[in-house]
Automatic annotation (TrEMBL), chain A:
InterPro entries: AAA+_ATPase (IPR003593), ABC_transporter-like_ATP-bd (IPR003439), FeS-cluster_ATPase_SufC (IPR010230), P-loop_NTPase (IPR027417). SMART domains: AAA (SM00382). It comes from Pedobacter antarcticus. This is Fe-S cluster assembly ATP-binding protein. Residues 3-247 form the ABC transporter domain. Belongs to the ABC transporter superfamily. Ycf16 family. The lineage of its organism: Bacteria, Pseudomonadati, Bacteroidota, Sphingobacteriia, Sphingobacteriales. Keywords: ATP-binding, Nucleotide-binding. CDD domains: ABC_FeS_Assembly.
Automatic annotation (TrEMBL), chain B:
This is Cysteine desulfurase. The lineage of its organism: Bacteria, Pseudomonadati, Bacteroidota, Sphingobacteriia, Sphingobacteriales. Residues 210-451 form the SUF system FeS cluster assembly SufBD core domain. It holds the Pfam family SufBD_N. GO terms for biological process: iron-sulfur cluster assembly. Residues 123-202 form the SUF system FeS cluster assembly SufBD N-terminal domain. SUPFAM superfamilies: Stabilizer of iron transporter SufD (SSF101960). Belongs to the iron-sulfur cluster assembly SufBD family. InterPro entries: Fe-S_cluster_assembly_SufBD, SUF_FeS_clus_asmbl_SufB, SUF_FeS_clus_asmbl_SufBD_core, SUF_FeS_clus_asmbl_SufBD_sf, SufBD_N. It comes from the Bacteria.
Length: 258, 481
């Protein structure tokens, strides 16, 4: 098993936001996590990536047998956790390529791989750019500076392609994309799928899942996974909304005396 | 402890890299300042009478000056009688070859990364080294001589080229300019002199390296650069000092003169000892730098990377006298811990169609206070002159401060002045983003800060840009978790 989350609880500013998440992801799998606004989807992504303002109060997270919660954010990244951000930040004056070179060098050092020569790095850059249809001119610009929403998301996928993580968490990568951009981003991700890596797609909408077909769909509500199923669950949610699940959840909670 | 605090702590305990003292026989004057001190220095340097007279004028002006009070910090008490105004390695004569130099001194320069021995030299950089008060060596002299370029210590210039020195010294920064300039006039010990003849393009970077070593001494160097018509020179200065609990005063004067069609590019990487984390010790850096674009179509540009010193008080300025002359000021000033920087520029547009450009990037961390102070002045004759100012401040943490004091005066209604200012904080979001790609926080901050300062760093000569980048990263190491 690649990722194992056991009874994960986390707070932000004293407020409990994850209330006992259990999830197992194997290599080669794609999991979709859906759920209404405020259910904790993005919080889960942040906790896995190690964002500091979240406090884990209970539970465990293992990545290939290593305790993820013990690691700093950069160590998690080097171990192979990649978060495609919902709102990628802009860093003026830092060239996209220079940044990626630094990141790749750190990751390769950690994985005991030899450093790439400038030539090899450029070759890899070109190949990955083509693979995910990322414009070369964007690669040389300052990191995300002045990029459109769609360009930023595509840059996330380009970085994912370059850094070759084990586990990729895509936090609403589909939001704010027009249909063409969505197609490009999805096809990029599909090309990157392999038996060695895994993807967790956090999304509001079923739309993305038409392009990237998940093996499992989970519904997050009120800080817990309240339902899991296959891709048909996403269709059901699209059709029926989340209200029936909320009712079901509160009904169960009432029965359990919560 | 929060991660931030731990990292800040690590930074605080990090030692200033150049804080060592060289054990070397020194010739140091008694502390104190009076007419005899001035005579003593002048005599030590075998100066002609006119030089002594000028020093005396400086001394008289110094006595009448008051300490400036307009800057954005309280002027520390300075006891000018407690300073020794002359310190020199004992072996005094100008060395004919490196073999004659005290090996201990050579080791110091090696530690500082100064390319003293010719074979180790960065290709194309000629270096003058000022150790405490005297110039130790000027390399590449012969090659420069062939082009008619004079690059030597100012003491040597006083002896060998008195007509040039007499004509230009004090012509841009008069001996009455301000208390520190007057003091410098009275007691300056050494510094560099450059003369580029008409039509000559200096083929290499000229560079001076300043080092304060002795205790209780001040350093008062004087630099004079003259670029004759249609010539070009790029000049760089670097500086370090040992760690000491007492503050030491550095009061330099730099004068630049660009004749018709000439261009001077002056770059500084200032890394004087900044004091410890509680603000104990460190260099008081009170410097007067001014350039005059005397001729039409001349150009002067100042680039400074200010990372050291307990206090930096420095406003490299340009008098744009020639029509169509141009002035540039590019600055990165970093304050960490208890450091204070009050720095900026003055652009005096006197001639018509003059242009100036100011790019200032302040970075504050720890409890550092960083002020930009700038004056843009359009005189009555400055028709169609233009200024563009961009003044950015970056804050790291929430105990530091950034301040901006722009002054604008225009007496010509065809002149244009533009001013842009921004203040931003290094976002946790930015650091986290880079962390998430496998880059640790220190490196992340280095990347962000260097990106922020890029417009200025790009102005530095290549080898020094790399040094400056490293220095910025070092100065700020660990300032955010």
């Amino acid at each position: 098993m690649m990722l194992s989350i056991k009874n994960l609880h986390a707070n932000i500013e004293g407020k409990e936001i994850l209330k006992g998440i259990n999830l197992e992801v194997n290599a080669g799998e794609v999991h979709a996590i859906m759920g209404p606004n405020g259910s904790g989807k993005s919080s889960l992504a942040s906790v896995l990536a190690g964002r500091e303002n979240y406090e884990v109060t209970e539970g465990e997270v293992w990545l290939d047998g290593k305790n993820l919660l013990d690691m700093k954010p950069e160590e998690r990244a080097r171990e192979g956790v990649f978060l495609a951000f919902q709102y990628p930040v802009e860093i003026p004056g830092v060239s996209n390529i220079n940044f990626l070179k630094t990141a790749l060098s750190e990751i390769r050092t950690h994985r005991n791989l030899p450093q790439l020569s400038a030539k090899e790095f450029l070759k890899m850059t070109r190949e990955k750019q083509e693979l995910v249809e990322f414009e070369a001119k964007l690669a040389n610009r300052s990191l995300n500076q002045g990029f459109s929403g769609g360009e930023k998301k595509r840059n996330e996928v380009f970085q994912l392609a370059m850094l070759e993580p084990k586990l990729s968490i895509l936090d609403e990568t589909d939001s704010g994309l027009d249909i063409d951009a969505l197609r490009i981003v999805s096809s990029g991700i599909n090309k990157l799928r392999s038996t060695e890596n895994a993807f967790v797609l956090i999304t509001h909408y079923q739309r993305l899942l038409e392009y990237i077909v998940p093996d499992f769909v989970h519904v997050l509500y009120n800080g817990q996974i309240v339902k899991s199923g296959n891709k048909d669950l996403a269709l059901e949610l699209e059709e029926k909304g989340y209200d029936w699940l909320k009712e079901e959840f509160h009904g169960n909670a009432a029965l359990n005396g919560q | 402890m929060e991660k931030d605090d731990i990292m800040l702590d690590q930074l605080a305990n990090k030692e200033y890299e150049f804080g060592f003292v060289t054990a070397i026989d020194m010739d140091i004057s008694e502390t104190g300042l009076n007419e005899d001190t001035v005579r003593f220095i002048s005599a030590k340097k075998n100066e002609p009478q006119w030089m002594l007279d000028w020093r005396m004028k400086g001394y008289q002006a110094f006595l009448q000056q008051e300490m400036p009070e307009w800057q954005n910090f309280k002027m520390p008490e300075m006891d000018f009688q407690a300073i020794s105004y002359y310190a020199a390695p004992k072996q005094q004569a100008k060395y004919a070859s490196l073999d004659e130099v005290d090996p201990e001194l050579l080791r110091t320069f090696e530690k500082l990364g100064i390319p003293m021995s010719e074979q180790k030299q960065l290709a194309g950089v000629a270096v003058d080294v000022v150790f405490d008060s005297v110039s130790v060596t000027t390399t590449y002299k012969k090659h420069l001589n062939e082009l008619g370029i004079i690059f030597c210590s100012i003491s040597e210039a006083v002896r060998e080229h008195p007509e040039l020195v007499q004509k230009y010294l004090g012509s841009v920064v008069p001996h009455t300019d301000n208390v520190f300039a007057s003091l410098n006039t009275a007691v300056f010990s050494d510094g560099s002199f450059v003369y580029i003849p008409k039509g000559v393009r200096c083929p290499m970077e000229l560079s001076t390296y300043f080092r304060i070593n002795a205790e209780n001494t001040g350093q008062f160097e004087r630099t004079l650069i003259i670029a004759d018509e249609d010539s070009y020179v790029s000049y760089l200065e670097g500086c370090t000092a040992p760690m000491r609990d007492e503050n030491q005063l550095h009061a330099a004067v730099v004068e630049l003169i660009a004749m018709k069609g000439a261009e001077i590019k002056y770059s500084t990487v200032q890394n004087w000892y900044p004091g410890d984390k509680e603000g104990k010790g460190g260099i008081f850096n009170f410097v007067t730098k001014r350039g005059a674009c005397r001729g039409a179509h001349s150009k002067i540009s100042w680039t400074q990377v200010e990372t050291g010193s307990a206090i930096t008080w420095k406003y490299p300025s340009i008098l744009l006298q020639g029509d169509y002359s141009a002035g540039e000021f590019y600055s990165v000033a970093v304050t960490n811990h208890m450091q204070i920087a009050d720095t900026g520029t003055k652009m005096h547009h006197i001639g018509a169609h003059t242009k100036s450009r100011i790019i200032s990037k302040g970075i504050s961390a720890g409890k550092g206070q960083n002020s930009y102070r700038g004056l843009v002045q359009m005189g009555p004759r400055a028709a169609y002159s233009r200024n563009f100012t961009q003044c950015d401040s970056l804050l790291i943490g929430d105990l530091c401060g950034a301040h901006t004091f722009p002054y604008i005066e225009s007496k010509n209604n065809t002149a244009t002045i533009e001013h842009e200012a921004t203040t931003s904080k290094i976002g946790e979001d930015q650091v986290f983003y880079l962390n998430q790609r496998g880059i640790d926080s220190e490196q992340a901050i280095a990347l962000i800060v260097n990106g922020y300062a890029k417009d200025v760093l790009n102005q530095l000569p290549m080898e020094f840009a790399v040094e400056a980048q490293k220095l910025l990263s070092l100065t700020l190491e660990g300032s955010v978790g």
